[in-house]
Amino acid sequence: MRPPYVGLEVPPPYSGDNTYAEGEIAKIRAAGRIASRALDAVGDAVRAGITTAELDRIAHEYVVSHGAYPSTLGYRGYRASSCTSVNEVICHGIPDDTVLREGDIVNVDVTAYLDGYHGDTNRTFRVGAVSEEVDQLVERTHEAMMRGIRAARPGRQVNVIGRVIETYAKRFGYGVVRDFTGHGVGSSFHSGLIIPHYDSAPSYADVIVPGMVFTVEPMLTLGTHEWDQWADGWTVTTRDKSITAQFEHTVVIREDGFELLTVSE
Ligand code: MF3
Ligand code: CO
Ligand code: CO
Description:
alpha+beta; four-stranded antiparallel β-sheet; three-stranded antiparallel β-sheet; 4 helices; 23% strand; binds 2-amino-4-trifluoromethylsulfanyl-butyric acid; binds cobalt (II) ion
C-alpha cells in the first residue's frame, strides 16, 4: 500500500498527529521493524567496491518483499527508496553509481510505510577501516542520539533533546547541524512537529507527553554546521566539506521514559 502522496502533483503538507494510541503505536513499530531490518541487510552488504545504488536496491527489495512501501519513493519529488549520504554529505544523498572506498562512511536512511504508518531510521556505516577521528565521530554521533532520546520525558519541552545533544557534541568540538531536524512521524512522514538537535530554547517548547512519537536524528560534523546543497535539489553537504555522521530512531514517549520503535527484534 502506497502513502497517499505518491503520484500526486501537490506535495503533502507537514501536518499530522503527534500522539498515538497503543494500537497505532503497534503499527508504527511494525513499520519501524521493517526499516531497521532493511538497514541490517544494507549493513551486511557495505564494503569497498559497492555502489550507493546497490545499497538502495537492497533496502528497496527488503522493504517491498516484506509487504511495506519505501516512504521516500515519490515523496516531494524524491525518486529513491533510501538516502545514501557519503563522507561530507550531511543528509538526503541520492543513491547513484558512486563506488564506496575503504575509509569512507555512508549513512543510509530508510523509512517503511506499512498499514498506514511510517517508521523512520538511519545508521552510519564504516567502509572497512576508517581513521580514528572518523571512527570516534560515528560512535559519538550514536551516543549523542541516545542521550537526546533518554532526555525526552513527559513534562519536559522538546528543546531538552537538542540541549543534551549539543552539550555532548561540543565537548569534542563537533559541528551540530541546525537546519535539518527530527520530526513527528506516524500516520504522516513529517507531521510538522520539529525536534531540533541544538539548544533552541526558548523556542520549540512543545511539551512532551506519553504516546508522543517522533524521530531523533542528529547530524554531527568534524567542522562547520553550515551547509551547501547540490544542484540536484537534495544532496546536502557540509560547507567546508568536513566529514559528517548521523543516526536516527523513531521513538514513542512512555510515562517513565521511551521505547525505540525502529529496532530489529
Ligand atoms: N528519512 C528522512 C528523514 O529522516 C527524510 C528523507 S525525505 C527524502 O526525515 F525525500 F529526502 F527522501
Ligand atoms: Co526522519
Ligand atoms: Co530518516
